[in-house]
Amino acid sequence: SSDLSNESGDVFIKGNHPDARGGVVWVDSELEKDPANLKKYSETHIKNAKYKEGLGFLLSNPRRIPYLMFKKFIVNWNFFGEDGRYNFFYGLALFFGLLGIIFSLKNISSGNLLLFSMLLWPTLLALIFFGEPRYRYPSEPYLIVFAGYAMQRLFSEGKARPFIRLAFVSVILINIALYAFSSHVLAFLKVVVP
User: Fold this and answer.
1) Residue 10 has what pLDDT?
2) Which of 4, 92, 126, 159 could bridge to 131 as Cys pair (CB 3.0-4.6 Å)?
3) pLDDT tens-place string over residues 28-83
4) Looking at residue 61, what DSSP letter applies?
5) CA 20/CA 70 separation, integer angstroms
6) Considering the entire predicted model, what is its pTM?
7) Helix, strand, or coil here: 44?
8) In Å, what is the CA distance from 5 to each residue of 11, 47, 50, 190?
9) 137 Rama sector, left if φ>0, alpha if ψ -120 to 50, beta otherwise
């Protein structure tokens, strides 16, 4: 719809503004600072002006682009809720899902590629616009599929290789520790990755 397409410029500028740190920053574009412009120009013109302004922010400081993309990725896939608490079950899905993805790289198939693409699209949107955990929610079931695959591999191979069992237990213990000390871990991350 036109509302969605016209808001994309707004989302772009808010995710790429100099004050942005991976998430959305609530700012107005230069065009919006004069309310008369909202009546003077069409929605499409305003949207395009916001894209141009956001792109101008990025091009005026291109060294900031990798940092901003890293932050957007972290914000999009982070395992802390809005309340600052560690999401234990999502943490399990994320850690085991990453293992499942690594295991899947050994046997690339069309099914695996489809699952990868379902994880890739919200990441690409976050890198272009801004990171927001709720934007990744539609792709979490696919992450859980990879997590299930990893757990199945760990259980089946763990009988023969004790190291695999140790990896499984380690993931559980790491999640318990992150959950128990979530406020301290989050405070540390905010200092290290501002």
Assistant:
1) 85
2) 126
3) 888 888 888 778 888 888 888 889 999 999 999 999 999 899 989 988 888 886 66
4) S
5) 12
6) 0.80
7) helix
8) 10, 8, 12, 33
9) alpha
